[in-house]
Input
Amino acid sequence: MSSQPSVKLIDGKAASARVLAEVRAEVQALRGDGIQPALAVVLVGSDPASQVYVRNKVLRAEETGIRSLEFKLPADTAEAELLALIERLNADAEVNGILVQLPLPAHIDENRVLQAIAPLKDVDGFHSENVGGLSQGREVLTPCTPSGCMRLLRDACGELRGKHAVVIGRSNIVGKPMAALLLQADCTVTVLHSRSRDLPALCRQADIVVAAVGKPRLIDASWLKPGAVVIDVGINRIDEDGRSKLVGDVDFDSALAQASAITPVPGGVGPMTIAYLMKNTLVAARLQRQAPRGARIPEDAACPSLS
Ligand code: NDP
Output
């Protein structure tokens, strides 16, 4: 299918390399002051995909000069034991960020665990203090994937003010925080979900489309207005032509006919998620600098402005 003459591929690998370089430079500056930001990554069980994610996070941390601390717990770890570890990490002034790899085994209450992380160390941005702060328009630690999408959008579109953004998907980790960040950037935001009616017609009104659904190639050119900027968060493994491959929620080849800029899958949003985890660790470290050394960061501590 013929594409728009000026369609631009949004290169998430290159963008993430720029973010990581910024983080590395800032980490070096902090180390000059005798501070090395540290990220604690907690993995419960031996889910193969989670193990790969954790390994990649640790590698990226090392590349940027962030100290990583890995805690690998057996799948039958009691919830109380995990909560006790988080409590210790909350109280440890040497630890700036805490990430608990999801999903957790079924016997552990995921929400209770996420709420146990001190908000100022919550580098995933999932604690209700940070969720609430984002929805109030305060600058707080925000979830990594939508934060990465915002950076890609700013790079691709420049000014976002006044643009109509359609977010497809309303999960707590992608869709809802994405909508909140776009609203904060003065976009007009429409959120679509599985109960929305006539999705293609609503989507065709969008200057910006962010797809976070988990349905392979759901969105094709007929959903897009000419010149739309498309951010495809979806990662779906399918079998095609006798081989297994990763595709997004957007039918990439079809969308090229209408979009002015689009992220590929893989190589679009994915690399940005990890880059923003590093950025959040750095931001968390900066926020905590004012706290006296060894002081426990209260769980209900309000997140000050990050600007
Ligand atoms: P969830 O399954 O939690 O949420 C999916 C959302 O899509 C829900 O809000 C659901 O609606 C909506 N939905 C489902 N089917 C349809 C449909 N046919 N039409 C419209 N809306 C629909 O997924 P996540 O948000 O966690 O992830 C979404 C995708 O992004 C997945 O492919 C995931 O792998 C990927 N992902 C990629 C990341 C990255 O780093 N690139 C990070 C995180 C996720 P309802 O609420 O009504 O059920």
Notes: Residues 145, 168-171, 173-175, 192-195, 199, 212-215, 233-236, 269-270, 273 surround NDP (CB under 6 Å). Confidence is low (pLDDT under 50) at residues 292-307.
